[in-house]
Design goal:
Layout: E1 9-18, E2 23-26, E3 33-36, H1 44-50, E4 58-63, E5 77-81, E6 96-100, E7 106-114, E8 118-122, E9 132-141
Antiparallel strand pairs: 1-2, 1-3, 1-9, 4-9, 5-8, 6-7, 7-8
């Protein structure tokens, strides 16, 4: 039976969980994800886990935070003038917004504090600082 290798396009089902058992992502409702192994469509450890799998195989892979979305960094928490954020009158703590940073980089920010004049935002990835565990099933070669 054929085994998955780098450069091969595959379809997989997966579920991603945090250490507390809560699920942060799954293909259950949307159908299998298609990716080419080694092209960076998923985390490197996720893609590496696919190598050697055959259709129908299931594998569990644990990805430490540093190899997933990085460690949470206090340097990624910034306070800006409220006037710098369009629609700042409608913001609430915990809301995620997108913004274009200097250099045209698109970023997703989480609002962590709001005062009359300033807004504190967290630019860390929502899963930064968290270890991830994926259960992956190779559905088929695409």
């Amino acid at each position: 039976m054929a085994k998955a290798e780098v450069g091969q396009k595959v379809r997989v089902h997966y579920s991603g969980k945090l250490d507390d058992g809560s699920e942060f992502d799954s293909t259950e409702s949307d159908g299998p994800m298609e990716l080419t192994i080694g092209e960076g469509d998923a985390l490197p450890a996720f893609e590496q886990a696919l190598i050697g799998m055959a259709p129908g195989d299931t594998r569990t892979v644990h990805v430490p935070a540093a190899e997933a979305h990085g460690l949470h960094s206090e340097d990624m928490i910034r306070t800006v003038g409220r006037s710098a954020i369009p629609g700042s009158d409608d913001l609430t703590v915990g809301t995620r917004i997108s913004a274009t940073l200097m250099g045209g980089v698109r970023a997703y920010l989480r609002i962590v504090h709001i005062s009359d004049d300033e807004v504190t935002v967290d630019l860390n990835h929502p899963l930064a600082g968290k270890d991830l565990t994926y259960e992956i099933t190779l559905v088929e070669f695409a």
